[in-house]
Design goal:
Order of helices and strands of chain B: EEEEEEEE
Chains: A alpha+beta (138), B mainly beta (109), C alpha+beta (287)
Number of strands of chain A: 8
Strand content of chain B: over 45%
Number of helices of chain A: 2
Number of helices of chain B: 0
Structural class of chain B: mainly beta
Shape of chain A: globular
Order of helices and strands of chain A: HHEEEEEEEE
Shape of chain B: elongated
Largest sheet of chain A: 5 strands, mixed
Largest interface: A-B, 28 and 31 residues
Number of strands of chain B: 8
Radius of gyration of chain A: 18 Å
Helix content of chain A: 10-25%
Strand order of the largest sheet of chain B: 2-8-7-4-5
Largest sheet of chain B: 5 strands, mixed
Number of domains of chain A: 1
Distance between the termini of chain B: 40 Å
Distance between the termini of chain A: 48 Å
Oligomer: heterotrimer
CATH superfamily of chain A: SoxY domain
CATH architecture of chain A: Sandwich
Chain lengths: 138, 109, 287
Amino acid sequence: MNFTRRQSILTGLGAAVAAFLPFRAFAAVEDNIAEFTGGAEPGSGGITLTAPEIAENGNTVPIEVSAPGAVSIAVFAAGNPTPAVATFNFGPLAASQSASTRIRLAGTQDVVAVAKMADGSFVSDRKEVKVTIGGCGG
Amino acid sequence: MADNVKPRVKVPKSASAGEAIVIKTLISHPMESGQRKDSSGNPIPRSIINRFVVDFNGENVIDMTLEPAISTNPYVEFSATVPESGEFTFTWYDDDGSVYTDTQSISVA
Amino acid sequence: MKRAYAPGRSLVAALAIVAGLAVPAMADPDEDSLVINGDIEIVTETAAPAHLDGISTIYSGWRFRGDGTQAMQMDDFDNPGMLGVAAAEEVWQAVDGSAGESCASCHGDATEMRGVKAVYPKWNEEAGEVRTLEMQINDCRETRMGAEAWGYTSGGMTNMVALLASVSRGVPVDVAIDGPAQSAWEAGKEIYYTRYGLLEQSCANCHENSYGMMIRADHLSQGQINGFPTYRLKNTKLNAAHDRFKGCIRDTMAETFAPGSDEFIALELYVASRGNGLSVEGPSVRN
């Protein structure tokens, strides 16, 4: 295969871009979601993921998930080395299918919540959280 | 068992029958992710709380799976329906096999 | 010279408007007010003490944080720093050392110590020195209890300082800067305005001249220490004021002073005095 000069430059650029992408693991989160849904593509609506637009520190990011009528809700961080974050399974005495916790994010990335509904269907919501880097490297 | 692991829970003292109450829980735990290295470059092994279960009078409220992406000192807030007076049990499961529990009574007027 | 920084700050804000950037992120402290547990009212903004001539209003660092971080300090259950306070409460009651005493044997309940944190660092006549609360705690441990001194910024020490801060929450900081404490205060002031390190930055460059502005993605505060010890989201533990000083000086790429050194004791007295009038609010929550 012969590369033209232009192709070589483009290939080089692509490699450079790939090298600078902070997270190469986006495929992994899709695998995690597929594992949770058994391969079903989640719909939208009926689930709310609340997360800050900008987190002051990635070590402790408050999030809340809510999906009325859900059996369980799984949370994933698309850009973390391992995307799984938590799964909430709601029992008969859960007053609402919602919960809050604090999570770690390795950088700016999408957080994804997927709910399994009582009828076996799946819905998801996704929020980008920008993780800031402090002034003094903190 | 990780050092100084201490559960804290916040449950209202009383409620009316069938009322939805908010419960907050916090347990002191480092949640060592397994992703970090010590000063000599050796990986620090993972050591986390991996499961948290809340029951009321033997019936389940929430059963949560925790991964290393949960922050140090895991905090969980959720809501429960209280059909009658009774006792909440809170159970945290550590990677090292330790189990930490707390209980909290609530009276229904 | 009052608010000498103001023109520059306005210019930055104006440029941000022109560029269509998020202005609030570049702006002064927010307008939120802090009440802890729906009960303890915290003064987070007040007139600067008379001895400050570079600033007219002082603000708690809480006012520079995002809503999520702020909320964690508004309820003791949500504040992970209170884990350290709870641990110290047990230590407070526990007998330690050859004299068979606990903190409680002399002082009673920790709540009896309300107001103490607000006046430290403080001149100790007997010892002829300015003492931080850490020094006083270790003096109690060694002299009264016959117990071993704690490391200056050890976990046990920082927890104990957090306990004493927590029972003083809402009390205005009021450290004395005159009389026998004056020379230490002057030494601390000298350090505050000295440029350190390869970056040639003084405390004042960031925390007096540039507070409210962004240093990369961080909203610069006035560097007040009324909220120490501070639970930082960054390292998920309680942090002592001297460790924060050390971090700041290190970040200028300088050799830093040691926690517990004469330099940091003097600096703590001076920086505390810049917050005279703000409430004690430790253990606070910061990023």
